[in-house]
Design goal:
With 225 residues, this protein is α/β, with parallel strands linked by helices. The protein folds into two domains: 132 residues, Rossmann fold; 78 residues, Transcription Termination Factor Rho, Rna-binding Domain, Chain A, Domain 1, CATH 1.10.720.60. It contains eight helices and six strands; from the N terminus they run βαααααβαβαβαββ. It has a six-stranded parallel sheet, sandwiched between helices. The protein starts with a strand and ends in an 8-residue tail after the last strand.
Length: 225
């Protein structure tokens, strides 16, 4: 079946994973305490804190305890939805202040743009929040690329290593799974997408694997649709 939708991961796929770990995470960690204190009474912040309390199983956690929990989650690289949402809000300020721009591989930019022009629908599935995804592409090294994408999916849709998440995405996109190509640098994510019926491609920029059950590409240019 013809590929009608390309669903792409971000870290390690469109974007150097070092940008996330060496720029975004440290920026959020450094700014987190003051940001939480400064926005504490806002409804959006209180929603995030309520979610964090549920995650901790500590309904009476105070501000200091919650801040320490978020710092710990950053240090442990935990995929906690409340943390992803909070980081997204912090990164808004960083992008708008031009403290950094969203890294994108040159080949990823060129081919995402080309595929969009060819009428292929583009969507994103990342463990980072939808807000963080839109910020990275909206303030990218190549300008605002958000018009290229039709859908953004994060951990609120499901875990990236579970078949059900990809089944849900196909349903939302309203395309049969076999017409969707999922791009990622993580084999377990590709396994889950494949089990849901999607086509898959492993982005192996640094080390080309042997005997992969997924098609493999070193750059977007070598991805075969």
């Amino acid at each position: 079946m013809t590929i009608k939708v390309i669903l792409t991961d971000i870290e390690g796929t469109t974007t150097d994973i070092q940008f996330v770990h060496n720029v975004l995470f440290p920026y959020a960690r450094q700014a987190l305490a003051e940001f939480v204190k400064g926005h504490w009474d806002e409804p959006a912040m209180q929603c995030i804190m309520a979610e964090a309390k549920l995650e901790l199983g500590a309904p009476d956690a105070d501000q200091a305890t919650l801040i320490q929990a978020f710092i710990h989650w950053i240090d442990q690289d935990k995929k906690v939805t409340a943390l992803k949402t909070l980081q997204g809000l912090i990164w808004v300020e960083g992008y708008k202040n031009k403290d950094f721009s969203g890294h994108l591989y040159q080949d990823a930019y060129e081919y995402l743009k080309l595929w969009h022009e060819q009428g292929i629908e583009l969507s994103v599935f990342s463990s980072g929040s939808v807000k963080a995804q839109q910020l990275l592409f909206g303030y990218s090294d190549f300008g605002d690329l958000t018009p290229l994408f039709s859908h953004y999916f994060d951990t609120t849709t499901g875990h990236k290593r579970e078949k059900s998440a990809y089944a849900s995405i196909a349903k939302i996109i309203q395309q049969p799974p076999e017409s969707i190509l999922f791009l990622s640098d993580i084999v377990e994510e590709l396994d889950a997408a494949q089990s849901a019926g999607m086509k898959t491609c492993l982005l192996a920029r640094d080390e080309f694997p042997e005997n992969s059950v997924h098609s493999v590409a070193s750059t977007f240019e070598s991805i075969k649709l």
